[in-house]
Amino acid sequence: MEGVYTFIGVIAGHGNGMVIGHLMLVIAIALYIAHKATNNLQAVPSTTQNVIETYLGGVIKMGEDVIGRELALKYLPLVATIGIFVFISNVVGIIPGFESPTSNINVTLPLALMVFFYYHYEGIRENGVKAYLAHFAGPVPILAPLMFPIEIVSHISRIISLSFRLMGNIKGDDLFLWVLLMLVPFFAPLPAYLLLSFSAILQTFVFMILIYVYLAGAVAVDDH
After folding, report:
1. Lowest-confidence segment of 60-74, 76-90, 185-199 by average pLDDT
2. What pLDDT is recorded for position 125?
3. Contact between residue 83 and residue 60 where contact means Cβ atoms under 8 Å apart
4. For the whole model, what pTM was predicted?
5. Quick check: 204 pLDDT over 90?
6. Please, are residues 144 and 138 in contact by the beta-carbon 8 Å criterion?
7. 175-195 pLDDT, tens per residue?
8. Of 192, 194, 196, whose CA–CA distance to 184 is shortest?
9. What domain range includes position 155?
């Protein structure tokens, strides 16, 4: 959001420099949390280890309901890593003086493209090119000329859905907080932080569950 004060924007200026600066901040926070959680693993976990273990257990449970436990464990590193990145990126923007990297399409679009190409790769690897492409044609061969273009458009629209949904919601939250802080900069915005925190969690959950859904549709074509 050009014109909005950010600490990193003072140094890097508005534009790509500010986005890269916030991305580096998010990566540093994620690496610190990962180091803190795994540096001294204990049978009775510390607070950070306990939080991360609870988070990973929740991600596995989420995947079990969509794709089964075996595949949920297989894709856990991808989904959990993206979840941590998206969540921290969302939350950073709630802190005055910072901006959410996920409010920028240059961040959310590469994430969406990575998911898009990865689940197609997994679908082809698990089922073979012929079997994977066959499920684009639908269950009735005579309808294949109609179904194939529809399926192609449907899959391409997932890129737009993943990237623009996340970007639009987080940018809206950032703008809402910015306006609120301009009008009532002290105690009045406090309840809004609860709403924005819930939104950050919700958008992270939606992004993660969609990854599992798309993977399920790609690797389990026989069930469709």
Report:
1. 185-199
2. 92
3. no
4. 0.88
5. yes
6. yes
7. 888 777 777 766 656 778 888
8. 192
9. 7-223
In a domain, 54, yes or no: yes
Amino acid in the structure at residue 115: V
| 144 Cβ neighbours under 8 A, 6+ residues apart | 137, 138
Q: Taking every pair of C-alpha atoms in the chain, what is the biggest distance, in angstroms?
A: 65
Q: How many contiguous H segments (helices) and E segments (strands) does the chain have?
A: 9, 0
Closest to 164 (Cα-Cα) out of 116, 107, 214, 91: 107
Cα–Cα distances (Å) from 165 to 89, 182, 221, in that order, read: 15, 26, 26
Give Cα separations from 204 to 1, 2, 43 (angstroms).
21, 25, 29
Tens digit of each residue's pLDDT (9 = 90 or more) over 121-135: 999 999 999 889 888
Q: Which residue has the higher pLDDT, 224 or 172?
A: 172
Number of domains in the chain: 1
Say if 1 falls within a structural domain: no
